[in-house]
Amino acid sequence: MKTEPIYKQRKITDLKDMISQSVNLFGNKDAFLIKNNVGEYHGRTYLELKEDIDSLGTALIDLGLKNKKIAILSQNSAQWCTSYLTITGGVGVVVPLDRELPFNEIENLISRAGVSAIIFSSKHRKDMLSLSKLSEFIEYYIDIDAINDEGNNFLSYSRLIEKGKVSLEKGNRAYLDAEIDENEMCALIFTSGTTDLAKGVMLSSKNLATDIMAVCSMLTINEADSALSILPLHHTYECTAGFLVMMYNGCCLSFNEGLKYIVKNLQEVKPTILMLVPLILENMHKKIIKQASGTFFSKLKLNAAIEISNFLYYFLKIDIRKKLFKQVHDIFGGRVRLVISGAAAINPDVSNDLCAMGIRIIQGYGLTECAPIVAVNNDQGYRSDSAGKPLAGIDIWIDNIGDDGIGEIVIRGDNVMLGYYENPIATHKVLKNSCLYTGDLGYIDEEGYIFITGRKKNVIVTKNGKNIFPEEVESYLAKSSYVKESLVWGRFDEESGETEVNAQIVVDMDEIKEKLHLNIISKDEIYKIIQAEVKEINKQMPLYKRVKEFTVREEEFIKTTTKKIKRYAENIG
């Protein structure tokens, strides 16, 4: 099915075109709000951003990097964003790398991609020095934080911009006049996973431009907005929605200093828009509820306030949420009007509570292979348990629908990737007639809302042919305040010939100790407490979905940088 656009958007063909238009529209407005070493913020305008892009692009071409692959390995920063826009705007192909990867995996991905230069921050300097001794194909290492060049191939980012500026003043137009083929690869994005399993997604300028325009056709975002970039920019969700969409609309972007500084940074920059993942939102929600529910009576007051807020807002069109829940808004900086949650499904109770408090949470659905957003709860409709409706211009349908109404989600549109880098077999498995077979299972209701039930490869099939989605069972387990996180899978029982539901459960020890007023608790006692919780949760599910066996795990699961649990043997084993 397709969705009609709510808002008309200006046409862009590529990111170079986008920035040129944004400079014409918002030139003197701040593109970035940057914190210096002494904790002071200063702005960098769209005009200044364009000057940096043109200077850096000219310098990179002068180095002989035209049409080559350039990696970025850094924390979120204005330099990260400038580098990305520069490379995709007429130099070559950008390869954003996960800054949390160990050295051997970074080395492997750089080798697989055939990277010719890498732009990095000082945190990775030691690794880059090691890499320079091992790799013969990397021509330049560009240090964002270095003041001066070192030798012929370790270059200072700021000096490079200065050199490019001089070259421009002498009339060098190699970068300014560089033509962009919208159908050629401009970004190579490696999916999360172990190095050998990570696929390189090839995205074109058309893919990115299409997705930017599609998002903006369904949501109100404008130059009055500002955003705090929290999630890693190498991930397409943050890169497209949290960065490129903001640049398209003339917003001001600032950068989080780390997860432990989220609240501090929110209160410093007071953003209006945030891109977050469910884990961060659920942790914030848990803290809010915990602080407001110190006693039985205060919990009653909180629940009553939420009910009153919903009644006044939805039935009488009276909005007192910001006043009623001022302390909650203060945590978010006091100005947040929109939070887009992605990368995984959010607990509807969390989004409903926060919405009742005046923090609008909308859920979307995306895949790296689609640049990445394909659906969102938009300005004309919202369902807290849904991934929303397809973006304008993107066709989504369900293939091979089963008796339960569930099938594989298929996507067609100009945002669908070119394919997997140097992997025609994997490409052929998912791309058929320009349609992406996602491997995600779900259904679309009569109103056009998309509901995702799980991953095709994760489904547990019973001997009677019934499908069990691990993600659904995990969502039930998550309802217990004693369960921090869980991982569900199917285990074949030879005696019964049945595939049974198994789970590993990470316990929230602080919650157990606080609620049960215990300082010390044995492993046996913990097991009995969780056993009782699982027993109650099982009553809420059909017999065939119930957890038959579980183990209690002390360490949290290995996760991607967007806080999704990796479903690999290292977690289950």
Automatic annotation (TrEMBL):
GO molecular function annotation: long-chain fatty acid-CoA ligase activity
Domain AMP-dependent synthetase/ligase, residue spans: 26-421
InterPro entries: AMP-bd_C_sf, AMP-dep_synth/lig_dom, ANL_N_sf
Gene Ontology cellular component list: membrane
Domain of life of the organism encoding this protein: Bacteria
Catalytic activity: a long-chain fatty acid + ATP + CoA = a long-chain fatty acyl-CoA + AMP + diphosphate
Protein name in the entry: Long-chain acyl-CoA synthetase
Organism for this UniProt entry: Ruminiclostridium sufflavum DSM 19573
Lineage start: Bacteria, Bacillati, Bacillota, Clostridia, Eubacteriales
